Amino acid sequence: MTDFEKAEAGYTARDIELLSELEGVRKRPGMYIGNTNLSGLHHLVWEIVDNAVDEAVNGYGKKIEVTLYKDGSVEVKDEGRGLPVDMHASGVPAVQLIFTTLHSGGKFNSRVYSTSAGLHGVGATVTNALSEWLLVTVYRAGKVYKMRFKDGGSIDVPFHVDGECPNSWHGTTVRFKPDPKIFPNTKFNYDTIRDRLEEKSYLLTGVRFVLKDQVSGQNQEFYCENGLREYCDKLTSGKNCLGDTIDFSDKSNGIQVEVALRWVLSDYGENILSYANDVRTADGGTHEQGFKSALTKTVNDFALANGLIRANQSIDGVDLREGLTAIISVKIPEDKLQYEGQTKGKLGSPDALPAVQSLVSTRFNYYLNEHNAFAVDLIKKVEAARQAREAARKAREQARSSRKKGPEMILSDKLAPAQSKEYRLNELFIVEGDSAGGSAKKGRDRLHQAILPLRGKPLNTDSVSMDRIIDNVELATIIQTIGAGVGSDFNVDASHYGKIIIMTDADTDGAHIQTLLLTFFYNYMKPLIDRGMVYIALPPLYRVYKKSDPRKHVYCWTDADREAAKEKLGAGCGVNRYKGLGEMNPDQLESTTMNKGTRRLLRVTIDDPITVEKRISVLMGKDAGVRWDWIKENVTFNEEDSFLEEVRGEQQ
């Protein structure tokens, strides 16, 4: 028999593995929650919270409570109708079906939920499948019902009546503990959950969110009466704005649309947040498309009708959206709701586009006609943005075509480019200093890795105009190297690199450079972060080696790693403490920080827009007093930062 025939004969029906639905989730959790790091861990909470939110949105209950327990579990309690407690036609209790069977639940029935976030009906099942144990309690019709699962969905205590309660009690409580066999880190972050509940409070006017932490004793409540207007005010608080927040809402073809927007004069990017049925759609979708097209057309029509632009002119949407903060929320009936992917990152419902277009066109046109002074100022701002964009484009074209020795070209000579034209596979390492840059150049994969050493600290770009950005040598070089534009002219699909990796020393200067670069990317190249293309390199802090045989060594990222390595190697160990990247030989830097198979990278994401906006404004803004107040309130200088412990094991 040939090798192929042997392989063919050895591949039979016995090799086909049939998994139960819960086993399938545990085998491939990333399909349902994105990943198993901290964002995936918190996604379990969001799934249960979204179920509680669906009850509140449909008029059942005005309070949602989340509690973090000392044993590492989390509980979500709502005051809705309570899950059904009768037997399903399949022969099992409805509660058991909901928590053990994918695509089960009331979200598919428009009689039960007019709108819901849980389109796919998998959230409760997935949370159960990825938990060490889960307890569900239902308060309904004067009785308390309970059911407990363990080890990823196996029935521990069957569904049963667990006593009586007043008829006024109603709702569902779900408490679960994530499975450490699935998640490397099972510790929930209070701030992450707090920020998500605050965000939800803006979207659900009149619903009270309560967060309790039994570990720290912290308790907070969030309640909002002014909806998206209050949300937009929060995001633009303390900034130099053009007018007040503009908001409007209406219902079109069964779709409820709410919009709030405001222009910030000192911002030069756009900050558009969109939601569908109270779930953040980070990748946009049809509702964002409708908003952008209607906004551009409305302003163009108004400007032309009032002689603010000539007949042969038109306003470009990218110029109009410079400095814009906008929030779009749509609530869509179940039969019209379409997401792309279980994590609901992008809305695909076709009906959302004309619904948003109609509202924005009608109401914003009315606003412009009623506020002529604002309209004139807005058109002036747009014209200034157009001129700055044109100046930036000409500067980039000149930098690419000119052979003269300008400052951009001098620094560009330090770039060691990647040889491959397969841009999505290429990586740009922005490195602190020439010394580290030299080591990185020698240790890199020349085909796909480019090295750009920085001459010094970049400019702080919070509230900085585009002409200063272009004039700054370090930033102009980064713009030129990435090759995708900048600000409103930035096109992420044109990037010459699939990964932008910031690689700095593990000291205060390195952290400062990281912060300055991240501020620049957030303000002027935000789609890079939205696409998950920006990373922080995590070089080791120590090298523990055997003095008698230095070839035996272990690289360590934390003090705990160092002590474990010393114990592993035994007596007679030496320790190298790397204060800077330049202290590492090229082969050491390559094997620990640049090699795709052994390195550790931290991906930069925006999980909560409110927190990011507040941090950038406070920590990078011009008001030193506000910054000092925040530091005094939030920083404890005698405690060790647990940052590295949280990211340990997240290898890229």
Write the layout of secondary structure elements.
Elements: H1 3-10, H2 21-27, H3 30-33, H4 38-57, E1 63-68, E2 74-78, H5 94-100, H6 123-129, E3 131-140, E4 143-150, E5 154-164, E6 171-178, H7 190-203, E7 208-213, E8 219-222, H8 227-235, E9 241-252, E10 255-264, E11 271-276, E12 279-280, H9 286-305, H10 317-320, E13 324-331, H11 352-370, H12 372-401, H13 407-412, E14 427-432, H14 434-443, E15 449-454, H15 466-471, H16 473-482, E16 499-503, H17 508-524, H18 526-530, E17 534-537, E18 542-546, E19 549-556, H19 559-569, E20 573-577, H20 586-594, E21 601-603, H21 609-620, H22 624-634, H23 643-647
Parallel strand pairs: 1-7, 11-13, 14-15, 14-16, 16-17
Antiparallel strand pairs: 1-2, 2-6, 3-4, 3-6, 4-5, 7-8, 9-10, 10-13, 11-12, 17-21, 18-19, 18-20
Helix pairs in contact: 2-6, 4-6, 7-8, 9-11, 14-20
In a nutshell, what does this entry contain?
With 652 residues, the protein is an alpha+beta fold. The chain is 38% helix and 21% strand.
> What value does the Rg take, in angstroms?
27 Å
CATH hierarchy class name of the largest domain: Alpha Beta
How many separate helices?
Answer: 23
Describe the largest sheet: 8 strands, mixed
Strand order of the largest sheet: 5-4-3-6-2-1-7-8
> Do you know the CATH architecture of the largest domain?
2-Layer Sandwich
The helix fraction, in percent, is: 25-40%
Mean pLDDT: 84
Shape: globular
Q: Quote the beta fraction.
A: 15-25%
Distance between the termini: 42 Å
Report the count of strand segments: 21
Tell me the count of domains.
3
Q: Would you tell me the structural class of the helices and strands?
A: alpha+beta
Low confidence ranges: 15-19, 106-112, 402-411, 639-652
CATH superfamily of the largest domain: Histidine kinase-like ATPase, C-terminal domain
Assign the CATH topology of the largest domain: Heat Shock Protein 90
